[in-house]
Amino acid sequence: MYTHLEDYIRDLLKSISIQNPSDLNIENIANRMHLIVTYKKKAFRHDNEIVLQPGTKQQEWRLFAHELCHYLRHYGNQLLMHKLFIDLQEYQANYFTYHFCVPTFMLDQLKEVTVDVIMNLFNVEHEFAFRRLEMYHSKTFERKMISARAYS
């Protein structure tokens, strides 16, 4: 059983024929979603343009996912918003980033899920892979507990 966000990401990726970790990259996804990606000193999104701050491939991938969340799920101009609402959007975009960069449905297809596997397959940094693995293990444990309760 997936969360709403995990379902949303799975359905989004499948709708643009992204099914494997090797398909997950900025150019591929931007092209399929008709997005323009440019690079400047500060990352943001405007209309169908996602502006990234130049960095390592892993940093750019993470920033792309973060800004993609704003593009897909948020409305309004943060310059005009209350700080608490901005904080909420940023929290949501950060959480989205973990699930978009390393989708749960793809993790479920792997025989072995380790930090190194996540780093190499999904092109993310060690700390990011470690945190995503913690999230995945927590979810897996929760699924097992729900299943065990259903049979007791």
TrEMBL record:
It comes from the Bacteria. Residues 30-133 form the IrrE N-terminal-like domain. Pfam families: Peptidase_M78 (PF06114). It comes from Oceanobacillus indicireducens. InterPro entries: IrrE_HExxH (IPR010359). This is IrrE N-terminal-like domain-containing protein.
